[in-house]
Design brief:
Elements (H helix, E strand, L loop, with lengths): L4 H8 L17 E8 L6 E7 L9 H13 L4 E8 L12 H7 L3
Parallel strand pairs: 2-3
Antiparallel strand pairs: 1-2
C-alpha cells in the first residue's frame, strides 16, 4: 500500500486527546501533513503541523509523542517530525461533526 497523506491522517485518528477523549484529527488539531522522499533510500519522512486547543495544553507532549509513534509505525516511514503551530489559533470551528457529536456540541 502506498504511503499517502490520507493514510497518515487515518493513523493520526488513533491518537486520542486524554482530556476530551476525541481523536486529534476530528478535533481539528492537525493543520498539515507532508510526505518527503529521502534521497538515500525508499523511505519517507513525515512532517506534521499540529496545534493545541490552548497554548499551555498539558497534554501537548503526550499528543506529540503518540503522533510520532503511530505514524512512525507505517511502512516506508523513516522519521516523523511534529511541529506545533499556534497561528492560526485553534477554535471549535475546526472540529468535525463527529467530534461535536462526541462532545455534545450542536
Amino acid at each position: 500500500m502506498a504511503l499517502t497523506e490520507d493514510a497518515v491522517f487515518e493513523e493520526l485518528k488513533k491518537v486520542i486527546d486524554p482530556e476530551l477523549f476525541v481523536n486529534i484529527v476530528d478535533l481539528g488539531l492537525i493543520y498539515n501533513v507532508s510526505i518527503v522522499d529521502r534521497e538515500a533510500d525508499d523511505q519517507k519522512d513525515i512532517k506534521i503541523d499540529m496545534t493545541m486547543t490552548s497554548p499551555a495544553c498539558p497534554a501537548g507532549p503526550q499528543l506529540i509523542g503518540n503522533s510520532k509513534q503511530v505514524v512512525g509505525q507505517l511502512e516506508e516511514v523513516a522519521e516523523v517530525e511534529v511541529k506545533i503551530v499556534l497561528d492560526p489559533p485553534w477554535t471549535p470551528d475546526r472540529m468535525t461533526d463527529d467530534a461535536r457529536d462526541q462532545l455534545g456540541i450542536f
